[in-house]
Amino acid sequence: TLLDEGRRAGALSARAEVLAKNVLALRSIPLQRVMVPWDEVDALRAPLAPAELRETLAHSNYTRLPVLGADGKLSGYVHQLEVLGDAAGGGLDAHLRELPFVAPELTVDRALARMRTFGQRIAVVGTAEKPLGVITLKDLLERISGDLARW
Question: For the chain, does the N or the C end have fewer beta carbons within 10 angstroms?
């Protein structure tokens, strides 16, 4: 392949070759193969008192958590650092952000492009009524580069 030739000619380092191959592979990987399944997702359920929200987020390993409304449908997500940094102690509604939805058959490369274009770091695979899983920008980028430190 062209990548192999580049490596042999010294134009590509071994690391650059691996990264390039990983990027090319993303065109054939559907999100349903790389998403975190919904039953493994940490999600918040409204209503949630401000103190309870802050306590939950303070002990979470995740910076962005989906929020289920009282009706059981996804209503958005909250950002851990935004809530914990709010000196006024605002509640769930004050910090709720729009949660994008993507189709499970969308490929990783297309999801990455969409997330980059719209400045998104998290998306739900499926619909508000039937979430199948979650993807994050970090998880998708790790498909290319390997493990990234907490960001």
Answer: C
Q: Quick count: other Cβ atoms within 10 Å of Cβ 140? A: 21
Residue 150 within any structural domain of the chain: no
- More reliable by pLDDT, 91 or 150: 91
Q: What is the mean pLDDT of residues 79-99?
A: 92
Question: Residue 97: which CATH number?
Answer: 3.10.580.10
Euclidean distance between the first and final Cα of the chain, in Å? 35
Mean of the pLDDT values across residues 3-16?
62
**Can the peptide bond before residue 47 be classed as cis, meaning omega within 30 degrees of 0?**
yes
Q: Which domain covers residue 69, as residue numbers?
A: 2-145
What distance in Å separates the CA atoms of residue 142 and residue 144, rounded to the nearest whole number? Answer: 5
- pLDDT tens, 29-52? 899 999 999 999 999 999 999 999
DSSP-assigned states of every residue in 12-54: S-HHHHHHHHHHHHGGG-BHHHHSEEGGG---EES---HHHHH
**How many Å separate Cα 42 from the centre of its chain?**
12
Whether 15 is covered by a domain: the verdict is yes
| Higher pLDDT pick, 56 / 147 | 56
Assigned domain for 46 exists: yes
- Report how many domains make up the chain: 1
